[in-house]
Design goal:
Order of helices and strands: HHH
Oligomer: single chain
Distance between the termini: 56 Å
Low-confidence stretches: none
Number of strands: 0
Helix content: 55-70%
């Protein structure tokens, strides 16, 4: 494309064309993106929990509560994926991305309720 001329002055074939996308396909793609982010957050929480358990910074009661909460979260996300027709393999993120995000992360402190 001729960078010296503004786009409005260029012939039609040189202008960027609008994306004509199917709204349903866009919705599915957005749904997959949202679920991928949720799955990433769940996995980050799970890794953080494992680190805290291994560090011995949780009581046995906290370990039990945390394990049950993570299991419930995983099951609920699976239910929602099924309801929206999204397959787990559609959400696979590179392991090195998750590793990079968890490296150097500060521990998450549990409050008395959670």
């Amino acid at each position: 494309m001729n960078r010296s001329m503004p786009a409005r002055l260029l012939p039609d074939e040189n202008r960027l064309r609008r994306l004509d996308a199917d709204p349903e396909e866009l919705s599915r793609g957005l749904g997959r993106l949202v679920f991928a982010v949720l799955e990433l957050l769940r996995e980050l929480l799970e890794r953080q929990a494992v680190r805290r358990v291994e560090a011995g910074s949780l009581t046995s009661e906290e370990v039990e509560r945390l394990g049950l909460a993570l299991l419930a979260l995983k099951e609920r996300l699976a239910e929602l994926r099924d309801a929206f027709g999204i397959h787990e393999e559609d959400l696979q993120l590179p392991a090195d991305l998750v590793d990079a995000l968890t490296e150097g992360a500060s521990p998450i402190e549990l409050d008395e309720e959670g």
